[in-house]
Amino acid sequence: MGSTNLESNKLEMYELGPCEDAFQMGFLIGQRFSKLIHSRLSTDLILQDQLLPFAQLPNSQHFIHTLSETNKNKFPNYWNELKGIAQGSGVSFLNILLLNFRKEILPFIPKTKDYPKEEDINDDCSDILVVNDSMAVVAHNEDANVALVGHTYLVKVTLSNGTTFTAYTYAGELPSCAFGFNNHGVAFTLNSVPPCEEEILAGAIGRNFVSRDLLEASSIEDALARIHSSEASVGHSYNLIDTRTRRILNVETASRNRISVHEIGETPFFHANMYLHLQVKQAQDENSLSRQTRASSLSKESKSDFLALLGDMNNEKYPIYMKGPLLYTLCTAVVDLDEKILTIIEGNPKEKQVSYVFSLS
């Protein structure tokens, strides 16, 4: 019931910068969205029932310390940004840390009958992408655990070096584990992928830090270089978009710097939450398999077709457009490289209820 009330609140955008430093930037964001961050912390059962208890175990201390030190050393500015978010919102740094490292920690929490496997509660997103003579489009469903409903916002940040980025952000997390774009013509959407546990490198770089870094990429080549050098702990799928050269790349990654790049062309490419071209042992994900199969049967000739596909609820158990009880489609983002706009749709994308339109030129 509470989520319905939250859902009715319009997605808020906060513009800030240039700031004195990364800490001040995080502080201002944390201060502005303190209420949302506190609300998320109190209602996020994965944090309360799994991450926090795990963090208190004596044998978890070294693991979390290693994870922290690795990320702090590679990305000191983003680490300070996190500290600013914690101080600005008035919540403990441990809570903010656990939210941002949930993907790197959850696979190592012992599973019990009380808690489902991590892949059963995984964030699930769907993307449909194409570059042909008539259109160049990325359409993305931002799916997450139902605890995130009403706990997201947009930030538009100007950095001291002149870079400006806009990012859809989960309360308490670095921008952005979802999608974003900057004034260099670079945009991205993200899909989680479920590698098996032996494919995960404990204590390496967190995915939230990698995607935060992409917001500052000066080109699609620079974005690829940042992913290449990321030394990530857990795999991820990145849809990199270059509005200046009309290119879209799907980049699948795994730990130990494994990477596969697929250039999007005239055949529409649907990506759920499974590896499609990087050879990695992955957890079986019935949700993704179902969405992948359903998408293959639907029309993909126009942008309207893409929105209809992302709004499809044909499969009751595993719909492409999700309405709970565990997973929920928070919004749909559509990047049109020819019109050079990013549109955010709240509600079923078939109904085209646009809440924001951003220029990418």
UniProtKB/TrEMBL annotation:
Residues 133-350 form the Peptidase C45 hydrolase domain. It comes from the Eukaryota. It holds the Pfam family AAT. InterPro entries: C45_proenzyme-like, Peptidase_C45, Peptidase_C45_hydrolase. NCBIfam families: C45_proenzyme (NF040521). PANTHER family: BETA-ALANYL-DOPAMINE_CARCININE HYDROLASE, PEPTIDASE C45. This is Peptidase C45 hydrolase domain-containing protein. It comes from Datura stramonium. The lineage of its organism: Eukaryota, Viridiplantae, Streptophyta, Embryophyta, Tracheophyta.
